[in-house]
TrEMBL record, chain A:
NCBIfam families: cas_RAMP_Cmr4. GO terms for biological process: defense response to virus. The keyword Ion transport does not apply. InterPro entries: CRISPR-assoc_RAMP_Cmr4, RAMP_III_fam. It comes from the Bacteria. This is CRISPR-associated RAMP Cmr4. Keywords: Antiviral defense. Residues 8-285 form the CRISPR type III-associated protein domain.
UniProtKB/TrEMBL annotation, chain B:
Its main location: cytoplasm. This is CRISPR type III-B/RAMP module-associated protein Cmr5. Keywords: Antiviral defense, Cytoplasm. It comes from Thioalkalivibrio nitratireducens (strain DSM 14787 / UNIQEM 213 / ALEN2). Belongs to the CRISPR system Cmr5 family. One of its GO terms (cellular component) is cytoplasm. It is found in: Cytoplasm. GO terms for biological process: defense response to virus.
């Protein structure tokens, strides 16, 4: 089994939902049960990636080995796909900031899990930064979000301490998400902030994007009866990470190993993920390039 | 097991649900129930989008001319208090004052508690009053 880290970069608001819910939002996004942090289910990603590759005549022949057969006539036709795709977890949440427009927030809990996955995937990773004090944030020394020593996020005014050690993480993620774009990497670094876990958790629950939707009755030109609802989205510019694992091909007559199959997967792919595609949701970049330490 | 006793060994969600059920059911005969119901539907979204301070301030500002806005705020206070989620003195105004005086940790807690209470109120507006998000009651003519 060959594990590898992937990243998702949301180019538009992303609605990977769980259907209608008895919750404060009518159509909430998927969240991990234990942490309540947003996730993109691996099944969503795997299905979309499969569909994308099936639509490309050059890549279509590799699809069965990677994803398994589309239809199974009997036991003789059945084999498991070589590609396993894990859930994608929230790494950076873009949060409204008084200075610098937007801040990319993460927390020690999230970085710790990310680092563990990086190490499991055989990658070196920067050491964990010092945790912020209660009610305070840590930012890179040239943060564009810090004003008079304070980070103004949504309704929260957090004293922000400069921490040069954060630069390594910001640069790492910048390289993973914008491998060929030095300006975008710098942009990400200067907007990077480490928040206490409780504040990050609060923002991940309350600073997601809520869109109000209606449907118009064509006969009257007014809102259809009952047709007013609230949808939750991960904001554009959110960054998530997950683990993909490849094994050798299980298809009869195909003796490719994990390394050979890895070459069939794109290093970068533009995908439409989740629901509400017709109203512009779910445009993401899937990135699989490894970051050099 | 008292509904208002936070130490009772029942689930917090059940305490909130009981308190919300009682308040929403009491609005059945209210003349303003459709407007009340439509506003309750919006309440969780308002808290998420604007924050608890803005939301309670907005409802207070509307309260003088729109009694249903005051009713929503009153019920929110009552659900928070009776469920043991938070002790609010001074009714609707007291909640707003408490919110704007809150420190960071209390703000995080109050917001989550208010969202939980608003979520249950919304459920019972749908399930008990049978009022949808556009303020239409079940059985009304489609027009």
């Amino acid at each position: 089994m060959q594990p590898r880290i992937f990243h998702l970069h949301a180019l538009s608001a992303l609605h990977c939902g769980v259907g209608q819910a008895a919750d404060v939002v009518d159509l909430p996004i998927a969240r991990a049960r234990a942490t309540h942090l947003p996730i993109v289910p691996g099944s969503s990603l795997r299905g979309v990636l499969r569909a994308q590759m099936e639509g490309d005549p050059q890549r279509e022949p590799d699809v069965p080995a990677l994803f398994g057969p589309r239809e199974i006539g009997g036991a003789a036709d059945a084999f498991a796909g070589a590609l396993a795709v894990g859930d994608a977890h929230l790494l950076l949440l873009p949060v409204r900031s008084l200075a610098g427009i937007v801040c990319y927030a993460t927390s020690p809990f999230i970085l710790r899990r990310y680092r563990q996955d990086l190490i499991r995937a055989g990658q070196a990773a920067p050491p964990l930064p010092n945790e912020p004090r209660e009610g305070q944030a840590r930012v890179v020394p040239d943060s564009v979000n810090r004003q008079d020593g304070v980070l103004f996020l949504e309704d929260l005014d957090l004293p922000a301490q400069e921490d040069p050690a954060l630069r390594a993480w910001a640069a790492w993620i910048g390289q993973a998400v914008h491998p060929d774009d030095a300006d975008a990497q710098t942009d990400l670094v200067t907007r990077f902030a480490l928040l206490p876990d409780n504040i990050m958790h609060y923002l991940a629950e309350t600073a997601t994007e809520i869109r109000t939707r209606i449907a118009i009755d064509p006969a009257t030109g007014t809102v259809k009866r009952g047709a007013l609802w609230y949808e939750e989205n991960l904001p554009a510019e959110s960054v998530l990470w997950g683990v993909q694992a490849l094994s050798r091909s299980n298809r009869q007559g195909d003796d490719r190993d994990a390394g050979a199959l890895a070459a069939c997967l794109p290093d970068e792919e533009l995908l439409q993920l989740g629901g509400k595609a017709g109203v512009g949701r779910g445009l993401v970049r899937l990135l699989r390039r490894e970051v050099s330490a | 097991m008292s509904a208002g006793n936070p130490r009772s060994l029942d689930l917090r969600s059940h305490r909130v649900a009981r308190a919300a059920y009682a308040r929403v059911e009491a609005r059945k005969a209210d003349e303003q129930r459709k407007k009340y119901g439509a506003l309750v539907h919006k309440l969780p979204g308002m808290i998420l989008q604007n924050g608890l301070a803005q939301t309670t301030g907005f409802l207070l500002a509307k309260a003088q001319k729109e009694p249903h806005a005051y009713a929503v705020l009153e019920d929110l206070v009552d659900v928070l208090t009776r469920s043991g989620s938070s002790t609010i003195q001074g009714g609707a105004t007291g909640l707003h004052q408490r919110v704007i005086a809150a420190d960071l940790n209390e703000t995080l807690l109050l917001t989550r508690r208010a969202l939980e209470a608003a979520g249950w109120m919304k459920r019972y507006v749908q399930g008990v009053l049978r009022i949808d998000a556009t303020g239409t009651a079940e059985g009304d003519d489609a027009a």
